Amino acid sequence: xxxxxxxxxxxxxxxxxxxxxxxxxxxxxxxxxxxxxxxxxxxxxxxxxxxxxxxxxxxxxxxxxxxxxxxxxxxxxxxxxxxxxxxxxxxxxxxxxxxxxxxxxxxxxxxxxxxxxxxxxxxxxxxxxxxxxxxxxxxxxxxxxxxxxxxxxxxxxxxxxxxxxxxxxxxxxxxxxxxxx
Length: 181
Fold this sequence. Notes:
This protein is mostly helical. It has helices at 2-6, 8-17, 23-33, 46-55, 58-68, 73-86, 108-118, 125-150, 159-174, and strands at 94-96, 103-105.
C-alpha cells in the first residue's frame, strides 16, 4: 500500500478497480495531473500502465486514452489542409497554401511527417508512396475540381478531408500511450 501512496494516480486507479471511486473522478485527476498547460513530456509510472492492462477492461482503457488524448482540432485541420495542398507540388518548392495562408516548404520530411498521422504503424515505403499517390489523385481529380471548384464546397466538407481527419484522430488516439511505453 505504501508504494501506491507514492503514486497518487496508481492509488486512485486501485480505488476505482475496487469500486470505491468512480471513473469520472479519475479523468478529472488525469486532466489535472497530466494534461496541465505547458507540459513537454509526460512521465507515467509503469505501475499505472500495468494496472491498466490488468483491469482488462477495453472500455476503461479507451476512456483513459481519451483523457490522455489532448488534441487541437484547429491544428489538425490546418495540417490536413496544408498536406492536401502540398502533395500537388514538387519537392523543394515553396508555396502559399490558400486554405491556411501558411508558407510551406515541400520536402520529403514534411510529407512523411504528415503521412505518419494518416497511416498505421507498419508503413513500408511502398505503402507510403501508394497512399500519397492515391490521395493526390483523389484530391486533384475529384475533391478540387468537383467538390471545391464546381459545387463550391468548403474543403472541410469534402469526403477526402473527412477521411483524412478520421485517420488522423484514430492514429493519435491509438498511439497515445506510445511515448509513455
